[in-house]
Fold these 4 entries.
Entry 1:
Amino acid sequence: MAMEYNQREKDGSIGEPVKVGNGETPGETIERLEKEKQLLLAQNKALGERMEFMEDLIAEIAMKVYE
């Protein structure tokens, strides 16, 4: 896990964040996990729709077979 700190500039203002260590900062981890969550939700929805389609297809085939 990495950490970040803001280094002071020569004029006393707060500078850009400086990353220390290897890996992701907590902010980077949160951002990555949010993206993964959105992808997984979309995949889950697509799989649910596909499963519903397959169930309807099986029911339709069964109706044709047992006519």
Entry 2:
Amino acid sequence: MFKPKYPSPDTYTPATIRPAPVPAEHSAAAPVSAKPQTALGGLVQNSPGTALALAAGGVAGVLALASVAVSLLLAVAVTAVALSVSGVVLLFLVRALRQDFKNH
């Protein structure tokens, strides 16, 4: 009753991926551009807008990393101040208890 029922192994048909045939072109050779290929391989056209977008993205990334670094340093500073204040308070309490025991 509680045994699982598995499908028989002959029902599985593996998917095969076949490359699409490349159509033969009878035209002349492709013209060779004089511009060297960029790192992006021609996906992005070189234009002032592209350069501006890349610069803006870089500035945004630097600002994001700087804000994370500043917040981490602020957290460390707040923790250090809290520990130093609690250490001073504990020192005063211990001294007060010692004086209290000496008097009795």
Entry 3:
Amino acid sequence: MVQGCFFNGESCKAVVERVTDWLASVQNQRKVIAVSHGLTGRIIRGVYKQLKKEEALKLDVSHKTFFKFSNQHIERISYE
């Protein structure tokens, strides 16, 4: 059974709150490297860009890809 975003786990609302708090805690850091699973990565990008839940959940999940966040812009960097 799906509850929120995650299967039998943390609700989407709880993840959004956790991600929002974390992003606020690192906003003044010069450089931060974060690693996440696909769905959480979508939520991180969605919160950063202030997307609606439905928009964030449609973001792609890519292997071999980094996302660079800077000045409200997200740059996709892929490698082979």
Entry 4:
Amino acid sequence: MTGTTHVVLVEWDGDGDSDLSSPADALVREHLPRIDGVESVRSGKSVSTEGLEGGFDWMLVVRFRDRTALEAYLPHEEHQPVASFIQGGSRRVVVFDIDD
């Protein structure tokens, strides 16, 4: 069975003066590695010089052991603080999952 990668792109709500990326990164580091089946977690602001982010400010990439681990992650109690923070502070969110 292959692993699964979960990608989340977030455009933070607001006027651009408040950056929610750092607190989001801290929540991700605190909570997501505790979830069984999570193999790696990466998050952060774009450092691209191309400027092709399409308005998105922050990205989260979570690599799971398999699709079953991804499915268990969504309702997991350690995922909830991260999901709530993103939902409460975002204008737009895109989620893309792939088997790799």
